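Board notes (copied after class):
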Amino acid sequence: MQFIDAKQAYPLILGMVISLVGVGLWQKLNPPTVREITSPLPVTVPPLPTTSPRPARIPGKQQGALRVGNRTEHSVRIVLLSGKRDRASWDGVEPVNWDFAPSEGGAEGLLLSLPNGQIEVAQGDIMFAFATDGSRLYWGPHVVGQTNSLVWNGDRREWNMILEP
């Protein structure tokens, strides 16, 4: 029993050959696209300011309000952790955090508070900030009374920190 006679076989074979030649030419004229894997953005660590000297350790325990400003073009989150776990004024809510929009607070900064009142920080409390916009910027950790980024203002009885790019 014969399925295809010779007269029908030639056009079939010729069609298959033309198809294969067409596919080969198509692959040569249109090479496959090469997908490049992009490397992650480098981590940028802002340098410490060289203009402000490291403050001398303040005698006694200076406790006061906290004022923070954001001079960067990034949205940042400020996180504060008490150096002492038994601080009753924080009502056991630790760590506490605040979000700042780009350039919020500017040069003078904003006085930070909790929903139930003003917060007071003292030497040994730890503060850091990080950008929330995916830029991977990070400031800190800053120890109140020990690092040069937090400055005591005796007139206002508050600690000040301004984040800079």
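Comment from the instructor: Helices lie at 6-29. The chain has a mean pLDDT of 79.
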